[in-house]
Amino acid sequence: MALPKNAIPSRALADFLTMQEAVDKPLQEVTLAFLGDGRSPIAPSLATGAAKLGMDFRIVSPPIFWPAPSFIADVTSGAHEHDGKFAVLEHVGAGVLGADFVYTAAWLGEQETGWAERIRLLAPFGVRADVMEATGNPGCKFMHCLPSFHDSGSKAGDRVAKQFGLDCMEVSDTNFEPKASVVFD
After folding, report:
1. Which residues contact 71 (CB under 8 A, 6 or more apart)?
2. DSSP, residue by residue, 77-104
3. β-pairing, 85-89 with 101-104?
4. Closest by CA position to 132, among listed 176, 164, 90
5. Each residue of 17-39: pLDDT tens digit?
6. What is this structure's pTM?
7. Rounded CA separation 39/148 (Å)
8. Burial class of residue 62, CB neighbours in 10 A (0-12, 13-18, 19+)
9. For 31, which of 39, 56, 156, 185 could close a Cys bridge (C-beta 3.0–4.6 Å)?
10. Which CATH superfamily, name and number, covers 9-176?
């Protein structure tokens, strides 16, 4: 399985170690759902690692942000080879059901162009309380690769709050900071 040029496999490895510390079962029994831009640097890194570890990994995103079909086929094959599962879905409820971890990444950089369209497309994939509840797993943990736009404390967060009337983007502040978050573990 080849990673895209912008992949960050060392970050994914660190995240898998954090996951192992946070649950009382082997990673082969862990379900991880990534919400947001499935082409972001971390999503394919997690997908490749999860496939090699035999995990159940799901990218939950609008189809326009799905990884390339060849990458999806590659990871699906690798997951099956290691008794894992891989899916790319657009329905949040189905994508997070049974998840042990819900993971997201920033939707925008400070200099991002095309904000309005990205935010419009990704808004239904923000990690809010209802998403964590939809997992059906009261022990589900939240992860984020940082930086995060979870409030109006950054230039981008302030701009989004003022321009789009949103209190957060990829994750709500109530999910970023609570005991279910392992962002800083």
Report:
1. 2, 4, 44, 47
2. HHHHHTT-EEEEES-HHHHHTT-SEEEE
3. unpaired
4. 176
5. 999 999 999 999 999 999 999 99
6. 0.83
7. 17
8. middle
9. 56
10. Aspartate/ornithine carbamoyltransferase (3.40.50.1370)
